[in-house]
Write a structure and sequence with these properties.
It comes from Streptomyces maoxianensis. It is found in: Cell membrane; Membrane. Keywords: Cell membrane, Membrane, Transcription, Transcription regulation, Transmembrane, Transmembrane helix. InterPro entries: Anti-sigma-K/W_factor (IPR051474), Anti_sigma_zinc_sf (IPR041916), RskA_C (IPR018764), Znf_put (IPR027383). The chain has 248 residues and is of the alpha+beta class. It folds into 2 domains: 114 residues, no CATH class; 99 residues. The chain is 41% helix and 21% strand. It contains 7 helices and 8 strands, in the order H-H-H-H-H-H-H-E-E-E-E-E-E-E-E. A 4-stranded antiparallel sheet has the order 1-2-3-6, covered by helices on one side. The chain has a 4-stranded antiparallel sheet with strand order 5-4-7-8, with no helix packed on it. Helix 4 packs parallel to helix 6 and helix 5 packs antiparallel against helix 6. The radius of gyration is 28 Å and the shape is elongated.
Length: 248
């Protein structure tokens, strides 16, 4: 791609609409082209401000429509010292206006690719966090020093806690646990000598759980399970449904 073509990619770059190889080449270009770097900063700031002002569900075809319009609209290269002025300057002003209009339209409907990129990044981060938690759960269950305790739960359900002191973590497993009432959630607790410490919330839609308890075991000698308002509580607000001592 020649230098003249690179100058036209500021809008597509801000919209995260470049292919990976084009994006890498354009980012190298930004290091040596202050004019393009400034334009990218200005367009990105505009997109951010407009995005904060609206929150509307976009039509599914809007992103493709906007990107198609941008790709079809010719942008003049940025003005550099010694370059001719006049017609080229007027053309650049027009293309910037059209590009800004496209950006504003995209943002006003919540369909800017930058927003979708952020959503995708957050989804990837959530997936990586889930993978890390699953790996840590597996390491606790398979730990050589894992100690297992079990108890009965309401309506014939069963609960099992697995503790690994070497990993300073505990896992809690349930089978057949009834779903909590609307607006309620099951909450786990570490028992620190009679003082309950929050250890995570259970998924109210799942009856068979296997989850890593939040926080370290430390000096906890057992755990508890209570029914709490949705979102959980800082300390138990109901009598425990179960209390379990950790096996030693």
């Amino acid at each position: 791609m020649n230098a003249a073509d690179l100058h036209t990619l500021t809008g597509a770059y801000v919209l995260h609409a470049l292919a990976p190889d084009e994006r890498a080449e354009f980012e190298r270009h930004l290091l040596i082209c202050p004019a393009c770097a400034q334009e990218v900063r200005e367009l990105a700031a505009t997109v951010g401000k407009l995005g904060l002002a609206v929150a509307v569900t976009p039509p599914p075809a809007l992103k493709h429509h906007v990107l198609r319009r941008i790709s079809a609209e010719r942008q003049e290269p940025p003005r550099v010292p010694g370059a001719r002025r006049g017609g080229a300057r007027r053309g650049r002003g027009l293309s910037r206006f059209v590009l800004a209009a496209c950006l504003a339209a995209a943002v006003s409907f919540g369909g800017v690719a930058a927003w979708q990129h952020q959503e995708a990044r957050e989804a990837r981060e959530d997936a990586r966090a889930s993978q890390r938690q699953a790996a840590e759960l597996a390491s606790v269950l398979a730990a050589p020093d894992a100690r297992v305790s079990g108890t009965k739960l309401p309506e014939g359900a069963r609960g099992t806690v697995v503790v690994s002191q070497s990993r300073n973590k505990a896992a809690f497993l349930t089978s057949g646990l009834p779903k909590p009432p609307p607006g309620k959630v099951y909450q786990l607790w570490f028992d620190d000598g009679g003082k309950m410490r929050p250890a995570g919330l259970m998924d109210p839609a799942v009856t068979d759980n296997a989850l890593l308890m939040d926080g370290p075991v430390d000096s906890a000698a057992g755990m508890g399970l209570t029914l709490e308002p949705a979102g959980g509580s800082a300390e138990p607000t109901t009598d425990p449904l179960a209390l379990m001592r950790f096996s030693t």
